[in-house]
Amino acid sequence: MRAKQVVRTKEEHVLYLGDWVFHVGPTFIETPFGTETKDADLHFYGERLTEALEQQADVTPLSNWELYRLEPGKLEEYLQQSEALIISDVEAKCFHLYPSFFDRARREHKIVTFPDRIESIKEWIHGGGGMMMLGGWLSFSGVQSRSGWGRSTLQEALPVNCLLIEDLVESSAGFTAEVVKPDHPIVKGLAWDKFPPIFGYNEVTVKNEEEVIVRVKETGHPLVVAGAYGQGRVFTYMSDPAPHWGINFELWESYNDFWLQAYNWIKGTL
């Protein structure tokens, strides 16, 4: 799979990793000897977030498998062209081991290594880049602790600590938001009294209580936390910007402004 070309129509660029899914089916069982699966669909859950950010910047979305297959050095090239990086519903392991490493037919029987892409991201943030890490089943610790971010070196750059166990907190009744710092540039002026119920989030702990901006009203857990790393900034939103947790959130009247304010904050212009 060839990497996408960054198309620039605006001065600013965002690299958006994750929030893609293959839908396969339906599956029909008509005989004890086999099944029939019909149709498959590739869907980008991040369309609403992309639409919000494209008011100001070009956005290049990459799926988890596209990220995994990027040739060494390509992610770093994307970062150098970007003001912001979004990681949403992506396992840490997707950043490791270029898959051709496992192609035995191409083995040259010599010691090989590749650039550590997570370390490249840390260096990029430390030098002034802005990153958003957003919630989901494969974010932070994730379902069955599969996401692995708490065991990654990026943990150092995050303003929150990932749990080392599954961190999903879910409710069909939904959770609401409580703003802790209403004057913070990320949340100021938004319609928080009309924030719709979200169906889940990732539980984390914070490194500095002063960086908690919004929390979950029902549990007190952090929902929006933002901090600095070197010369760069990192924003974390512990729920999903898209369905399924965020299916109501996408309808919030302040949805676009929330993401634009977060984007401008991590860039250091707000």
UniProtKB/TrEMBL annotation:
InterPro entries: Class_I_gatase-like (IPR029062), GATase1-like (IPR010768). It comes from the Bacteria. Keywords: Glutamine amidotransferase. The keyword Chloroplast does not apply. Gene3D superfamilies: 3.40.50.880. The keyword Lyase does not apply. Pfam families: GATase1_like (PF07090). SUPFAM superfamilies: Class I glutamine amidotransferase-like. Residues 47-267 form the Putative glutamine amidotransferase domain. This is Glutamine amidotransferase. It comes from Niabella pedocola. The lineage of its organism: Bacteria, Pseudomonadati, Bacteroidota, Chitinophagia, Chitinophagales.
